[in-house]
Design goal:
Strand content: 15-25%
Order of helices and strands: EEHEEHEEEHH
Oligomer: single chain
Radius of gyration: 20 Å
């Protein structure tokens, strides 16, 4: 799965009701069933992915066989839809097409700086081994909790190294960088005026 701080994959999509050749660039993210709950991302319409709906995962290799997708509110706005659930989205790359059925819409959220505009996003279900595992921790007795997580990881995946970081440090670095940039621009502006 992708983390909110590591969503970087883009693709072009068109949609049901679009005029010919109308496309938007959209950010794509693979997530699992628990992503929205883990990160506290709320639904604005429809439903989350669920094992009770096998159609959320594409079966077979037929690109015409639609698979479930979640969109954010900004993507829905850009498409001009008032009732997106059940409509089709088409991913376009070259002459290839992949079809998706909207099962839900998530409320817009920032995954980069709060100063950046919210971009159109879609989320598709991935149940294979993903790149990251996200764990929400309470914060009490952190060393013992991390020890338990590491022991569990080594038991489940003895061949894979255990490495972790806290998402708040990623966002802290992002804003620290912005503060440094602002200070540098202020100093350079002062120098230019001088």
């Amino acid at each position: 799965e992708h983390l909110p701080s590591s969503i970087r994959q883009y693709n072009n999509i068109t949609w049901e009701g679009a005029v010919p050749e109308e496309k938007i660039e959209i950010i794509c993210s693979r997530i699992d069933y628990d992503f929205l709950d883990t990160y506290g991302i709320e639904l604005a319409a429809g439903r989350n992915f669920s094992p009770e709906f096998p159609g959320d995962l594409r079966t077979g290799e037929d690109p015409q066989s639609p698979r479930g997708v979640l969109l954010n509110e900004e993507a829905v706005r850009r498409m001009g839809w008032s009732d997106p659930v059940g409509k089709r989205v088409i991913h376009v790359w070259g002459n290839n097409r992949a079809y998706w059925t909207v099962v839900g819409v998530v409320k817009d959220f920032h995954f980069t700086s709060l100063r950046s505009a919210i971009r159109p996003m879609n989320f598709f279900l991935s149940t294979r081994i993903n790149r990251y595992v996200s764990i929400k921790l309470a914060g009490e007795n952190l060393p013992a909790t991390l020890g338990f997580v590491e022991a569990t990881w080594k038991r489940l995946y003895p061949e894979l190294p255990f490495d972790f970081y806290f998402l708040d440090t990623v966002f802290d670095r992002l804003y620290r960088s912005e503060v440094r940039q602002r200070q540098l621009f202020g100093a350079l502006s002062g120098l230019a005026v001088f």
